Amino acid sequence: MSRRAGLWVGFVLVHLVVASLGFVLPNMPMGDVTLVYEPWASAAVEDGSIMGIAQAWVYPQLAIVPMVLALGLEWIAGYEVAWALLVTALDALAFALLVGRGRSAGRTTAAAFWLAFMLLLGPVGMYRLDAVTVPIALAASLWLVGRPLLASVLLSIATWMKVWPAALLAAAVISVRRRLPVVAGAVIVSALTVAAIVASGGGAHAFGFVAGQTGRGLQLEAPVTAWYLWQAVTGVEGAFVYYDSDILTFQVTGAGVDAVIAAMTPLLVLAVLGVAALGAVRAWRGATFAALFPPLALALVLAFIVFNKVGSPQFLTWIITPLAVGLVLDRRRWWPPALAGLAAALLTQLVYPLVYDRLIVADALAAGILTLRNLVLIALLAWAVARVARTRPHVRSSLTH
Hints:
Elements: H1 3-24, H2 31-46, H3 64-72, H4 79-99, H5 105-121, H6 130-143, H7 148-159, H8 166-175, H9 179-199, H10 208-214, E1 218-219, H11 226-234, E2 240-244, E3 249-253, H12 257-284, H13 289-306, H14 320-354, H15 356-359, H16 364-389
Antiparallel strand pairs: 1-3, 2-3
Helix pairs in contact: 1-4, 1-5, 2-3, 3-4, 4-6, 5-14, 6-7, 6-14, 7-8, 7-9, 8-9, 8-12, 8-13, 12-13, 13-14, 13-16, 14-16
C-alpha cells in the first residue's frame, strides 16, 4: 500500500471512530449540535428567524451557513450524522490538498499529524462549529503563497463563522510579501457580509458577537480560571463552579472575580498586539513567509486561547493549522511542538468529555488534568513567541511545491 493510500485509509477510519465516539462517550459531546445548531438552523429555514439578523448572536453571521447545510442532510440519519458528514466532506477536501500526490514527506507528516490530533481530541473536535472552520483555514494557509487572494477570501469566510481565523489573517498580512491581495480579500468578504446583514435588517446586530464575548464571565476550562478552580477544589469560601443558563456553559467565581473578568479582554488585546508587533518587526528585518508565518500564526492563535476568559475544549482545534503548516515547511524543527499539541489534545479529551462530570464539581484529579493541559498550551505559546523572535531570512518556502 502506498503512503498516500495509507493516509486515506487512516482518514476514513479516524473519522468513523471520532464520529461514533460522539454517540457513546459521556457528558454529551454532541450537545451543541443537538441542542443549539439544529434549532437555530430550523428557525432560520422554517420561520426566517436568522440568528445574528433577528437578534444578537454569540457567533458571526456566516456561522448559520454550515448549520443550515447540515439540515439539508438531516434526512440521511438525523442531524448529528448530517453534521459529521458535512465536517468529513470539508476535511476530505482539505486533506486531499494537503496530501497531494503523497510525494512530499512534509505534507504526509502533516496529514498524519492531523489525523492523530483528531483521534486524540475526540468528538468535541468534530461536533462543534470550529470543525467547519479548520479545513477551510488549513486549505487557505496552504494557498497563501501561490493564491493569496483566494486564501484571504477563505480565511475571511471562516472568520465570519468563528472569529479565530482572524489570527491567521493577521499572520498572513504580516508574513506574506503580496499583502495587497490578502487585505483585499478580507475587505471584500467583510464588506459583502456586512452589506448582506444590513440589507436583511440585522444592522444593529452586525457585530453583536463581539459584545457577546466581552460580557462573559470566566469559563471553567480557561487558563485564567485556575486560581479560582483550585480555590473551589480546596474549599475556599466564595469560590465555586456554577452553570450559566444564558450562555449554556460552566463558569467559576470567587473573591475579586469581577476585576479579573474586566481585565481579561484588554489583556487579550494587548497580548495579540504584542505578538503581532514582534512578527511585524521580524518581517521588516527580512524574515520570509516560510520562516515567520507558522510560528507567528501559532503564537497569535495561542494568545487567543491562553489570554481568553472563554476556554471551550474545541478551541484546541485552532492549533491544527499552524502546526500542520509548520510540519509541511520544516518537519524536523516542528515535531517537538507538534508532539506537545498532540499531548494537549489527549489531555483535552480526558477533560471533556471523559471527566467533565467530575470537573464541574471541582474534583482535584480533573482539575489537575485541566491545569496540566493549560500549562502545555502556555509552554507552546512561549515556544512560538521565541521562535518568532529568532526567525531568519532566506528560508525557502515549499507551500507551492
